[in-house]
Amino acid sequence: MLALFESVGLAVLKLLEYVGSLLMLLWETLGWIARGSVRPGLTIQQMAYLGVDSLLIVILTTTTAGMVMSLQLAHIAVQYGVTNVVGGGVAIAMSRELGPMLTAVVVAGRAGSAIAAELGTMKVTEQISALQTMAVSPVRYLVVPRFLALVAMMPILVLFADVAGTLGGALVAFQSASIPYAAFYDSIQRLLELSDILNGMFKAGVFGVEVAMVACLQGLTTGRGAAGVGVATTSSVVFATIIIFVTNYLMSSWLFPVT
Description:
The chain has nine helices and no strands.
């Protein structure tokens, strides 16, 4: 029994230590940004690599998610004679939940793993130690551009995700349940509010912070050798995904309270 309590206590301490490391890295990153230590060229380069290059897979993922949701909603709506709410239901689900969350998971898998692998390789090959030797802060030079890139690009990716998922839902609703495009669009106009879209974009910005911090921390604390880089890359995706799901629930209960 004592061993069980010890293992639980060690797990809690490790969790608190990890959260503290994330917060300290975030604080240092925001400090450099507040002092104006931003490299615009490198930031734009990271926006293209982490954001634009993720657009295709984000659109593919959210389009199929919208199609599946519309497929289920359309048949139920036809059965109960409420086809005039299918479009709004799909659009609200995409804007509030599926768009931000799926985009964040996809970006964590693609961009987050790339960040962790890149920084981890730099750590293993002692490039980060070389930066510190030259009195160059690794956080300023490596973390800040990636942080800004993800925070800026995530809401934009979510807008594309919302549109793609809704269009996919409209296509499936028409093909599978004969719901006219005009009725689908009218339902969106009646039910979807601007606050749904804006709050979803806000969630995406928070997810961008989480993915950037987790990926950078895992990269900067990589262990020795190629095995360490592999562990850092895998743990980056796993930790970021868990944090995304937990904070998604917390933010949904705050931004979209059930009345």
